[in-house]
Amino acid sequence: MLLLEGISRILPNLNLQLDSEKPNHPDEYADLRQYGQKITSKQAEDRGIKSTCGPAPPPEKCKYCGAPLYYEGMIMPDLTNDRDNAPPPWIFRWTNMPIRCTCPDAVKHWERYDAEQERKRLEKEKEQQRMWHRRRVNDLLAKSGIRKRFQQRTFERFKADTPGRKQAYNAAREYAENFAIIKETGDGLYIEGTNGTGKTHLAAAIAMYLTDKEYSVIMKTSFDLLDEIKRAFDDAYTSEHEVMKAYRECDLLIIDDLGKEQCTDWSMSILYSIINERYEAMKPIIITTNFGAEDLIRTLTPRGYGCQKIESIISRLREVSQTLTMAWDDYRSRQEE
């Protein structure tokens, strides 16, 4: 007990003695210990800061007031966290330009310079964005199945020169411009009409408009769609599952000229599978066809089979689609479809 009391009386005095042995002077480089500190060549010379990257470039003069403009040195940060034994900081790199003068004329000059540099930076950024957008659009076009001829069928090239064509144009344009909402509701278009009335043109215009907005669109005739799936069965590199998945999952599927394909139970089963899965997933479809609903059912029903499956396909399409009827004289005489 007496021993403990003696130690307790000695320890405070011992701590005071140890503290008194520590160097009691401020760190003259404390302002340079933090990461990212810079110092002018003049300040480095005055404070004895050495450089490991050679001497500083000679100072320049302000072209407006003649004041000396020194280069700045980047300070190597203190990595030891031991301020008592840390070596003096040193310069590991000099800046490429001297410090800026603060005289009024120099300030105006640098304001103009900075504004121009910012303009160039923004323009370069926009150009990069345009480049990436173009690459993305080209990639989407390559996967879209839109033939080169139909890539020219834009809204701007559609002749809305009669009340009927103007009404069809407005409906298609409105569909494209509101696709961000339509994509969530799953609404489609059922475009019916006779040959050469512009059905494919408007469908392609929607496809090109949305592709430019970076939506994934597939546009194919029903014949080409089914043919691609058939070929996938014999393709060692592409499976029919991958092809079907693309049709089921793209943002918009456009089936052009429905009713011109060869009608078999297999082909109707494939079409039903694609349309039904998109219907259940609320993914939009656009159909173009030369047939009205009843004629299309008769056309698509394979010989020797019932029409229930075809009726289901048409029923689902009509349920979620706005119908555009384009019934007028052949418009290819003035403009190809």
What does this entry look like structurally?
Keywords: Cell cycle, Cell division. The chain is α/β, with parallel strands linked by helices. It has 3 domains: 37-101, no CATH class; 103-143; 144-326, P-loop containing nucleotide triphosphate hydrolases (Rossmann fold, 3-Layer(aba) Sandwich). The protein contains 11 helices and 11 strands. The protein has helices at 2-21, 41-47, 104-144, 163-177, 179-185, 199-212, 222-234, 240-249, 265-280, 293-300, 308-319; strands at 38-40, 50-51, 60-61, 68-69, 72-75, 90-94, 188-193, 217-221, 252-256, 285-289, 321-326. It has a 5-stranded parallel beta sheet with strand order 8-9-10-7-11, with helices on both faces. The chain has a 4-stranded mixed beta sheet with strand order 1-5-6-2. A two-stranded antiparallel sheet has the order 3-4. β9 (252-256), α9 (265-280) and β10 (285-289) form a beta-alpha-beta unit. α4 packs parallel to α6 (199-212), α8 (240-249) packs across α9 (265-280) and α9 (265-280) runs parallel beside α11 (308-319). The longest helix is centred in the middle third of the chain and has 41 residues, at 104-144. The model is unreliable at 14-22 (pLDDT under 50).
Query: Helix/strand/pairing class, anyone?
Result: alpha/beta
Task: Indicate the mean pLDDT.
Answer: 84
Q: Return residue spans where pLDDT drops below 50 for at least 5 consecutive residues.
A: 14-22
Strand content bin: 5-15%
Helix content: 40-55%
Shape: elongated
User: For the report, how would you describe the main beta sheet?
Assistant: 5 strands, parallel
Q: Which value, in Å, is the CA radius of gyration?
A: 38 Å
Lateral arrangement of strands in the main beta sheet? 8-9-10-7-11
**Structure summary, number of beta strands:** 11
Number of helices: 11
Distance between the termini: 109 Å
- Order of helices and strands, N to C? HEHEEEEEHHHEHEHHEHEHHE
CATH architect. name of the largest domain? 3-Layer(aba) Sandwich
- CATH level-1 class of the largest domain: Alpha Beta
Provide the number of structural domains: 3
The CATH topology annotation of the largest domain reads as Rossmann fold
CATH level-four homologous superfamily name of the largest domain:
P-loop containing nucleotide triphosphate hydrolases
